[in-house]
Amino acid sequence: MSDKRFAVASEQSLMRVFTVPEAPDSTLSKIEAEISSNLAGFLNENIAAVEKPLHEIERDFESAQVPEEPMFVSAHAQDIMEKLVAHSVHTAAPSFIGHMTSALPHFVLPLSKLMVGLNQNLVKIETSKAFTPLERQVVGMLHHMAYGREQKFYDKWMHSAKTSLGAFCSGGTVANITALWIARNCLLKAEGDFKGIGAQGLVSAMFHYGYKGLAVLVSERGHYSLGKAADVLGIGRDNFIAIPTDEDNKVDVAAMRKEARALEAQGIKVMALVGVAGTTETGNIDPLNDMADLAEELGCHFHVDAAWGGATLLSNNHRHLLSGIERADSITIDAHKQMYVPMGAGIVLFKDPSATDAIEHHAEYILRKGSKDLGSHTLEGSRPGMAMLVHACLRIIGRKGYEMLIDKSLEKARFFADLIKSEADFELISEPELCLLTYRYVPEKIKARLQQADEQTKLDIYAALNRFTASMQKRQREAGRSFVSRTRLTPAAYGYQPTVVFRVVLANPLTSKAILKDILAEQRELAASDPMYKKYLSKYL
Amino acid sequence: MSDKRFAVASEQSLMRVFTVPEAPDSTLSKIEAEISSNLAGFLNENIAAVEKPLHEIERDFESAQVPEEPMFVSAHAQDIMEKLVAHSVHTAAPSFIGHMTSALPHFVLPLSKLMVGLNQNLVKIETSKAFTPLERQVVGMLHHMAYGREQKFYDKWMHSAKTSLGAFCSGGTVANITALWIARNCLLKAEGDFKGIGAQGLVSAMFHYGYKGLAVLVSERGHYSLGKAADVLGIGRDNFIAIPTDEDNKVDVAAMRKEARALEAQGIKVMALVGVAGTTETGNIDPLNDMADLAEELGCHFHVDAAWGGATLLSNNHRHLLSGIERADSITIDAHKQMYVPMGAGIVLFKDPSATDAIEHHAEYILRKGSKDLGSHTLEGSRPGMAMLVHACLRIIGRKGYEMLIDKSLEKARFFADLIKSEADFELISEPELCLLTYRYVPEKIKARLQQADEQTKLDIYAALNRFTASMQKRQREAGRSFVSRTRLTPAAYGYQPTVVFRVVLANPLTSKAILKDILAEQRELAASDPMYKKYLSKYL
Fold first, then answer.
1. CB distance from B125 to chain A under 8 Å?
2. CATH 3.40.640.10 fits A126-383, yes or no
């Protein structure tokens, strides 16, 4: 009897979760109100400044049992404030300049809630209706931003059932994979008795076309997702050939041409060239026009990974930096990077609206031929209506607003570069072309010592400086006041040796020049107390 | 001068977007308040009941120009209420039983906002911190739900830097691709001089291992994403062999064994068997234990696509339906289906924690060896913290709550099946094993006519019934009161001919028995006035 009463009571309370909104005075509603009225304050107050070691955080996430009993929403909310929110990363903080995440425009918060409440599924019209034309428009707008075709072109193709001007993706990796999937399938298309690689697979395709292998050529600064694409698509990471870059971290197109010719002489077909428009590490842009020329010579696909740099096309003052991108067969852009959209919005664009024919697929219950279901041209299936947030940003910020944000970020990077160069104990490693730069801290005495060192000593000091830089970066992160990331480059100034550097991305509109000065001051302090300095560097003085 | 004033003013207004929250009395805040206090009412009032034709909706999304000038948030909000929200699909409506989307628990709305506000990037610890252990715990909980290993196992592996018990994905398609990517790479692993398919590609791998081809065997009811996986991975759609199903839409394992043996006799290696645990069209579960036996015999990977059915494991009363799943090498589960999480939460689980070694990747600036960055074992790169919503649902609903939801949905499906069978003019096509079923409307007179028809007349009537069923489904959707989807099956009752059927998914906890009765009543009315009935069916009477 009591058991049955319990069951009835809990069924009712369970149903309430689906029918009764959170009360305005509930713990969760209070948290939400705080986010709504003062997001920056909420993040500053609730994210712990000093880093808790990961192994301690893990203790709060140890049980592998789905809890048997339901839990009150308020208890859960309280719990995650302490265990999750407090130990998150303050990605929006203006002094956290090591990531590609930034402060977000406030309006995306209520709009995200609307998006979740509507819970559309963009795989098909039947679960998205107006969201499908909206997503097609967003893709069309970005296509226009990159390729600048006349409105007539968009009138014809943007809402066409047969084609797609691009595909919305969860992120740049899926966008890059989709682009190269299409490149592969277009190259190895159906012909005569051969039904195409999509149907018969890679081995039959190579046999049919008589290629000994496939290769993709990309700058050594290409994003690691390209290696993943090579693996997934069956081409192999070794056949994604890294081409050296020049002093400015731009790919050497002459070297690329030489490599391509050598491969073709061996019967290896160059499937695609990948240009990078904003390398992840240094923000440099490959010579896209030269690459487009080479791709034409080779008769191969030309993809541009503009996950980071694509937004620069919105600035009339700087879009020339990406000149040649309009000649690319496909382009990756991440709206969750410098377009200030929350995480989860990658896009791949196709110059030719029929490019997606190469990957078209259908099913009995959806994606029927002739339908406008977006899912027939995407790698992913069910997907949320993230396009709604890109649409909102494009309209509310507008092209001119983006231009201002982008111009400011480039100007800020220039300022920071000059500041670094003016300080005797800092060293700029890569000049900013967009709003990324790399640098390091090298005590003046070490600089002087390096001047007179023999080759072996130089190498030893380089190794010590690497340890020191990595240690400083880690300690700065742990202190929690600011954050720069780190990577490893091979600059000429260090004899092309692997060189650990600080990396910064200056896209957050809230990052001020004063903050940048503070970051250098903090690093100078950290350097003075760094254990790696004492252990490995001081002996050279 | 005035130009400069304008520029300053707009820079200020632009910055306000990043610094000043939406005012409580703004249009967007009012919309948000309505969602918070009465989501169901908001959706009912703001989504237009009667369908507007798609080509008319498209007119509102025609321009391919990124707007030059910024727009007020309030103007944008107003605009999307009329143009987007009004013409969205009411996926949460209890009478919309044709999708796999359902009403959501209310607490996911404020939590989604928190997630967006925190804007973590799960690719690496540096941009997610506590979110990484949280995601590992969620994956661990689902692993435990499926594989039920002892806590010691999870203590060892759940937070290990070297391994992953699974991967969080944007959806089931990426989960299925990831599983088969791993299966492919494990099969064609490094050996001797061969560096593995990941490095050298598929052609070298086949040459090294001496296979003439690869094949994957799956039920003819397998999800279309598996074909996509075959294409992407270079195996080819033709080498994903569809095996017939029995009367209950479960794969015929004897036929699968025969096919596998025939392939192996030709030198074609069976790379994987894929079992379906909840087919998309009928909700049936393949004989997983028999398939596991066969996979052992063949020495191949056994993947189970439980995107839909996986949640059933949370019910102790029904988890036996998926018996054998614990023998699978990998399992796909979609939390945005019957786990009531918003769109965008797929998961793939691996029995063996070292499975992801086959796809491990690193980069200079993140995913360094030894780091706990989740991105070194995922197909995707940057990803949002969706795991937070799965975590919340698992804790707040609890296993017992899920059990109740799942048991109720199965009971409701049983009720609806019996109801359909009790009506003389309806016909149940597939019995519900989970909460999916298919049926159609066949006027009694037509049923009688079919009894006496010769073969050709039967086929003609079948074709006419197909047109009639498709027309009814479309008209019901357009009327906007309720929604069932449709698919095409080949039931024995229709001589294995392609047969268009209504398909329903009864997972929405708010769908009542009264609503189900109304849906049949509405369909009976629609049938009476259907133009396809008059045009193609009436002549047989």
1. yes
2. yes
